[in-house]
Amino acid sequence: MNDALTIIVPVFNEEESLPLFFKEMDKFINVAPVASEVLLINDGSTDESKSIIKKKCHNSAHYRYLALDRNYGLSTAIKAGIDQCTTSLIGYIDADLQTKPEDFLLYFEYFPRYDMVNGIRQKRQDSFVKRFSSKFANAYRRSMIDDGIKDTCCTLKILKTSCAKKIPFFIGMHRFIPALIKLQNGTIKQVPISHYSRCAGTSKYHLWNRLVGPFFDTLAFRWMRSRNISYKIADRKR
Q1: CATH classification of the domain holding 122
Q2: Does 203 reside within a domain?
Q3: Strand bridging mode 116-121 / 188-193
Q4: Distance CA 66, CA 87 (A)
Q5: Spatial separation of the C-alpha atoms in residues 232 and 41, rounded to whole Å
Q6: d(C-alpha 217, C-alpha 199), whole Å
Q7: Does residue 139 sit within a domain?
Q8: Is 44 helix (H, G, I), strand (E, B) or coil?
Q9: CB-neighbour burial class of residue 132 (10 A; exposed 0-12, middle 13-18, buried 19+)
Q10: Range of the structural domain that residue 96 is part of
């Protein structure tokens, strides 16, 4: 396989999680079957995350970073990362280690046959409120857009960069990356992966933004999909 991988890691106030995250990511980089780098997107952190990131990037050639001027949110951080990628594959993972880099190793066998591999988190290690709100939001999304994706918000993905750069971005986009790939007639493989309790720090999401945000974002996606331009050429003269 001649591919190379850039792993996008959005970071907002994760100073407690980053040291262990780097240890786990270093383990993956050492055994990854393709050349891999990590692109950390500091999304306006107000703690020591930026200084920790800069130190790591200074000491390791496999890491680089981009610091946004303020906190824009997860969708914007992911877009900023995609905009900076030049490798053939793009990965995405959060810094909280609820999914771990080692599970990326399960994904590579599906490229280049598929355009994207998305995880399905098994035995979710979350609070009852988080599991309930996630289950409800997923059920609502599936009933509204019927994209066939079991765990759209799984924070462990790899996709072809050529497809990622075509994604139409909007606030809340991160909840619909698989659906947006399918909108391009892209192919997706779903793979069961492990899920863990948060290693450190606190979640930035709560019941309100897990339910209200997805509700309006799903309506926005349905509107956009209904007006999406897609065509196939049947014949031509050159």
Answers
A1: 3.90.550.10
A2: yes
A3: parallel
A4: 16
A5: 37
A6: 29
A7: yes
A8: coil
A9: middle
A10: 4-226
Residue 75: inside a domain: yes
Query: What's the confidence (pLDDT) of residue 205?
Result: 54
Amino acid letter for position 33: P
Instruction: Note whether residue 12 is domain-resident.
Output: yes
Q: Where are the beta strands (DSSP E) in 94-229?
A: 116-121, 156-160, 188-193
* Residues in the chain with pLDDT values less than 50: 1
User: Helices (H) and strands (E) in the chain — how many of each?
Assistant: 7, 7
Task: Give the count of domains, the chain.
Answer: 1
How many Cα atoms sit within 13 Å of 65 on the Cβ side?
A: 21
- Which one, of 47, 46, 54, lies nearest residue 22 by Cα? 54
pLDDT given at position 1: 47
Tokens at residue 57, please? 């990037």
Predicted model pTM: 0.84
Say which residues have a Cβ less than 8 Å from residue 61's Cβ, sequence separation at least 6: none
Q: Model confidence over 126-148: pLDDT tens digits?
A: 655 566 666 666 676 777 777 88
Residues of 99-131 as b/e, b for ≥16 C-beta within 10 angstroms?
Answer: bbbebbebbbebbeebbbbbbebeeeebeeebe
In the DSSP assignment, the letter for residue 115 is S
The owner of tokens 């399960």 is 106
